[in-house]
Amino acid sequence: MAHFADRLLERMRARNTPLCVGLDPRWESLPEAIRKRHGCDSLAGVAAAYEQFCSRVLELLAPLVAVVKPQAAFFEACGPAGFAALQRLLAQARELGLLTILDAKRNDIASTATAYADAAFGGTTVEGRTHAVWAADALTINPYLGRDAVEPFLMRARQAEAGLFILVRTSNAGAGLFQDLLVQSPDGQTRPLYQQVALAVADWNRENLGACGLGDVGAVAGATYPAELARLRELLPEVVFLVPGFGAQGGTVEDIRPAFRPDGSGVVVNSSRGVLFPFAPTASDWESRIVTATRQTIAALAPLFGKS
Amino acid sequence: MAHFADRLLERMRARNTPLCVGLDPRWESLPEAIRKRHGCDSLAGVAAAYEQFCSRVLELLAPLVAVVKPQAAFFEACGPAGFAALQRLLAQARELGLLTILDAKRNDIASTATAYADAAFGGTTVEGRTHAVWAADALTINPYLGRDAVEPFLMRARQAEAGLFILVRTSNAGAGLFQDLLVQSPDGQTRPLYQQVALAVADWNRENLGACGLGDVGAVAGATYPAELARLRELLPEVVFLVPGFGAQGGTVEDIRPAFRPDGSGVVVNSSRGVLFPFAPTASDWESRIVTATRQTIAALAPLFGKS
């Protein structure tokens, strides 16, 4: 194993793209053949359909991209069967050489945060034996609870040479309600809350930089806010950005350009629906459509990536 | 069914206590007999031990308290078997007449938030059929993502006549890093971020008040910050507070007094470790110790509750 940022950069360079594909399965968008095979009489059937679809997607994507981002909510909505499916998909992604960002936006305090972090990374240790749960390469977390809530995630991520992505500026239309409020910082400056969170991310990230110069505490910053992305890159030169909102949510290549470092590194661009569901459920050629959509997105992002 | 706040108040009055017991199972604290029976060779064994212990706790607590608060993190740390155990415990709590607050601190945007909210409350609907997942009476959520991230939770909670508890001022020592920052509100005032979040909670809560005058959007406010509790009660006269941090985390009866409304209503006081684990793992009388600790905590809280 190596430092998270070094592994990430090495894999993205090997695939020559910053594209990460979000695994956000939705029943109504799945290929009809998969829906029919499993049925939806129970959530176990829905979970099995999600798993079959996502499993095939992982096989299709592994030669093309470096990173996938499973969305925990859609698996949670299928109950325990959904979580079992998510667990197997994370294991399969690892076996295929894909890095995994578990998008679960977890957060809590003290030993509760440690329990989430154990699940996400190294595993749960009971009487000296450690049992893997998700074993993801990175996890999204929420900063609202403060440093001592982030601390257990930092500790466990570092023990596993994994990464964190902290919500800084989210991609939704109403993100600004709290994130854009001007705050009086203890340093005497006034700045929007999301920039104050960014400065905390900068501090946490600086504690553990990889050989590539990037750290293991990333920032989630939406593609839908280009001006904010530019400001965040100024504040966070050593931080990896996870940029959701590209494609279906409206973010364009020009919108996300300011997120990249001058050498074209430092960004993981997520696309979910645009790559995952570029077909009608009745289409029999859904596999080739996913590959085509992935290749097109990679081509669109190529001018931004890896010009070092 | 009735409005969440009315159900909550009616049940708390029937039990004559605001005490809520947090279900935070920890392997090292479980009775030795339960640990030995299930073993920890796998997380399925750990989950089974958690379930047996918590199930017995629910039976012991049902005649004494109105509300329990399972902590999702400890079940997540056991993987899919943990979630299945949590699902059965939530169902058992309902059957025993206990209200359930699922402490999962979830949050996301748009359809992803809807997926979490479906899981928490009414269930996941696929092709017109709805399948229950957690079916909790209330869920804790994080406000950082803004109104449109809270909206799907509000909608689903209201469809199920359930409640939300939004993190406002958490009980951890480092809570103030962001929550205490002074923000410039669009209303021209300057106030700490947690109070700005509180004002949003007030607005959301006012949209749906019960017959008792309290609403369905509660605030999480830690027992460890009495001055903040007093200020929050001024700002939020119609809001139910979920007050963690009482007991083992250091909050005293005097600390939480300011959270109560003049009539002694409006607060759910959570105690986890203090009530759940008042015994050494080798103690054979752990059941009676839990009952005694619960009765003592109820007695300690009695002067604060229900003086209407």
Strand content of chain A: 15-25%
By oligomeric state, this entry counts as homodimer
Order of helices and strands of chain A: HEHHEHHEHEEEHEHEEHEHEHEHH
Return residue spans of chain A where pLDDT drops below 50 for at least 5 consecutive residues. none
Largest sheet of chain A: 8 strands, parallel, barrel
CATH class of chain A: Alpha Beta
Number of domains of chain A: 1
Strand order of the largest sheet of chain A: 1-2-3-6-7-10-11-12
At the fold tier of CATH, the topology name of chain A is: TIM Barrel
Whole-Å distance between the termini of chain A? Answer: 24 Å
How would you describe the shape of chain A?
globular
Mean pLDDT of chain A: 97
Which percent bin holds the helix content of chain A?
40-55%
CATH-scheme architecture of chain A:
Alpha-Beta Barrel
Sheet/helix structural class of chain A? alpha/beta
Number of strands of chain A: 12
Structure description:
The structure is a homodimer of 308-residue chains. Chain A is of the alpha/beta class and 308 residues long. Chain A has a single domain (4-302), classed as Aldolase class I (TIM Barrel), CATH 3.20.20.70. Helices cover 44% and strands 17% of the residues of chain A. Chain A is built from 13 helices and 12 strands. Chain A has helices spanning 4-15, 32-38, 43-61, 72-76, 79-95, 110-120, 147-159, 176-179, 193-206, 226-235, 253-256, 273-276, 286-301, and strands at 19-23, 67-70, 99-106, 124-126, 129-131, 138-141, 163-169, 182-184, 190-192, 217-221, 241-243, 267-271. In chain A, β6 (138-141), α7 and β7 form a beta-alpha-beta unit. In chain A, α3 packs parallel to α5, α3 crosses α13 and α6 runs parallel beside α7 (147-159). The longest helix of chain A is centred in the N-terminal third of the chain and has 19 residues, at 43-61. Chain A is globular. The mean pLDDT of chain A is 97.
